[in-house]
Amino acid sequence: MAQTGTETGTASMLHSRRWLLVAPALLFLWIIGQIDKTHTSLLIADEPFINELQLAGRNAELGGLMGYFLLGYGVAIFFWGFLVDRYGPRICATIGTLGWGVCLFLASRATSIEELLVIRFFLGVAEGNLWPVSNALTNRWFPAKEHSRAQAFWITGSTMGTAVAVPIVSTLILASGWRDALAYLALLSIVPIFWFSFVRNRPRDSKGISARELQVIEGGQKQPVAITTMSIKDLFKHGPFWLIAVCQLVSGMTIFTMVQWIPRFLTTYRHQSFTGMSAWITVGYVAATVLTLMISYFADRTMQRALTGMWVCVIFAFAVLPCAFLFPATGTALLLSTLIAAAPATAAVNGALMHQLIRPEVIARGTGIYVGFANCLAGAGPAVFGYLITQLRGEYWGSFLFMAAVNVGGAVCYFALYRLSRRAMAASAVAAPAEAN
């Protein structure tokens, strides 16, 4: 009977509006957003781009193309969070997406690295809508028991978008040059607006939703949690909130640094061809997408999200250096790109943990605070990675060691979260009989 109930629940999910419309819309938004974020990783591996803008040896500035983006992204998330709570995720998704397209078109006309850095900053401002929009819709459209899976579904857009970006952007660069490639990407960026025209801010506003699905969503919005629900003001005084923010910093720094530098590492240090590199890291990013979904499903089934995040960080920290240097170039391309699964998997865990802390009506603002904090600082990752390459005279071992150390810090924070949640649960178990008496 239990198995039948599970199958019925799965079938219900597959026929639901939240999984057939809202989740795919968010996934597509993230795929396009990730293409816009990470196309620079292929630009800096393109010698005509490097030569035209005279960027040879300027590794810190090449890393800054991602760093400036993340600075704008992190600062803007604070404001997008309030805008999403005030005006709704649908209109904010539309306005932000239009901004993506404008910034990419301007980037296609840039004549210096300084211009590109400014444009990348404003692209980050426009893309700052992603997290508040996605977290608000997840909170409103999905019951609590599906939060990790829902978050993982659209967060896999970060790896899936990178996988899609590699062949698309590589083909465009090789066929028409980097400037025309950016112009084409500008057109692609506004496509999500069409999909979001069918998505409503809340389930009750959607005409096509069934009464049964509405009951499932609204009935599953709240459940007992280990950490007490609180206001935005209280979050600034709360240790677990800042631990999750640091974990998000680790996630953001990992994905944006690795995605930015893997192609150049493979072409300049491991001497892979541009075409060969593109093919193998595409396969790796697809594998990372599958791994992300598997890890998030495990986190939901066990409800041990902090422990799951800890082990993901530990595995990344111990695996990244061997994957970079102990395998043939093709194996390195595949393994390093697969390791990126650590970042979206921990980001999904972080989002699910945050849903336990914040009231639904302020979830976008809460998201803006913790993701904004993380992304403002995560921008240092690609720049530090590039700086270490220069300081070590073209060697990459110090840069990958830096990424391993970052994830060790994440593992420590997740373990602290696990211990705090265990104590809170123990205290609740002791208090319950006392209240009953």
Short summary:
The chain has about 425 residues and is mainly alpha-helical. The protein has helices spanning about 1-15, 15-45, 45-50, 60-85, 90-105, 115-125, 130-140, 145-155, 155-190, 190-195, 210-220, 230-235, 240-270, 275-300, 305-325, 330-340, 340-355, 365-380, 380-390, 395-435. Helix 14 runs parallel beside helix 17 (about 340-355).
Commentary on this structure:
With 437 residues, the chain is mainly α. The chain has a single domain, classed as Up-down Bundle (Growth Hormone, Chain: A), CATH 1.20.1250. Helices cover 81% and strands 0% of the residues. Helix 8 (147-155) packs antiparallel against helix 14 (274-302), helix 9 crosses helix 14 (274-302) and helix 13 (239-269) runs antiparallel to helix 20 (397-436). The longest helix is centred in the last third of the chain and has 40 residues, at 397-436.
Short descriptors:
437 residues, 20 helices, 81% helix, globular, disordered N terminus, Growth Hormone, Chain: A, mainly alpha
CATH class term: Mainly Alpha
Helix content: over 70%
Question: What's the number of domains?
Answer: 1
Strand content: under 5%
Overall pLDDT metric: 81
Biggest sheet descriptor: none
What's the CATH topology label?
Answer: Growth Hormone, Chain: A
CATH superfamily (homologous) name: MFS general substrate transporter like domains
- Overall body shape: globular
Q: Kindly name the structural category.
A: mainly alpha
Which helices and strands occur, and which strands form pairs?
Elements: H1 2-14, H2 17-43, H3 47-52, H4 59-87, H5 89-107, H6 113-127, H7 130-141, H8 147-155, H9 157-189, H10 192-196, H11 211-219, H12 232-235, H13 239-269, H14 274-302, H15 305-325, H16 329-339, H17 342-355, H18 363-378, H19 380-391, H20 397-436
